[in-house]
Amino acid sequence: MPAANRIRVIDLETTGSSPPAHSVCEIGWQDVVLGADGQWTLDAAANGARFVDPGRPIPPVTMAVHHILDEHVRGAPFWQDIAPSILRPEEGVVALAAHRASFEQRFCTPKLSGGARWICTWKCALRLWPDSPGFSNQVLRYWRMPEGLDQPTGLPVHRAFPDAYVTAHHLRDQLNKAGLETLLAWSAQPGLLPRVPYGSDRGRYWRELDDDTLRNYTTDRNEDVRFSAQGEIESRQGARPAPGEPPAQGELL
């Protein structure tokens, strides 16, 4: 299948969140491909998981999340050795994808990924499903109940392949609804939050705020909050598409 018709969903389990102090201890992947009918679907033959030797002990606080032990990764390949073959498969990919892809990108550097483009299914979910009660991989899983998602295959949570498998179902549906280029464009921007995430206005939709309150959020410390508040201001002025609408031509990148 041509590279332009394949996206590889990646999920990492790590010793922590900040390389180089932390490293990868497991990688999982699941490919999503474009069929002859023009619909994206999961490739049942293109998935897997591999343990990775992080080169340091796994802290108990992260063992408690993914339950990967030091003895599981002992003798496994190191990240720099195994990453290129998974991130850059022989058949090629048009993009890599992950849920909250900024985390995976800390470890999957351009050198290892070959400068691949990324889709963030979290950012795309904010746009396409703004009424979801939450936007984590698992909340979306049970709020949406994606067609064809096999419950046992998507478990346990916080292991690399099951999480990649669940994310791939979100990606498939996002691609079929909005298209590849739109997802790439949204992923290159900050997250467009549908609701205020904290403070006295927590849980309120931006459209419910008055103009003065909205302007206060444009100086918030959080990039996504600033972007979302500014987006509502521009939407009121007719300058930006509402969530779920593809960006105008010329605003893709």
Structural summary, described in words:
With 253 residues, the protein is of the alpha/beta class. The protein has 2 domains: 3-187, Ribonuclease H-like superfamily/Ribonuclease H (Nucleotidyltransferase, domain 5), CATH 3.30.420.10; 189-253, no CATH class. Helix content is 38%, strand content 15%. The protein is built from 11 helices and 5 strands. The chain has a 5-stranded mixed beta sheet with strand order 3-2-1-4-5, with helices on both faces. It starts with 5 loop residues before the first strand and ends in a 17-residue tail after the last helix.
Task: Lay out the secondary structure.
Layout: E1 6-14, E2 24-34, E3 40-51, H1 60-66, H2 70-73, H3 79-87, E4 95-98, H4 101-107, H5 110-113, E5 118-120, H6 121-128, H7 137-144, H8 160-178, H9 180-187, H10 211-217, H11 223-236
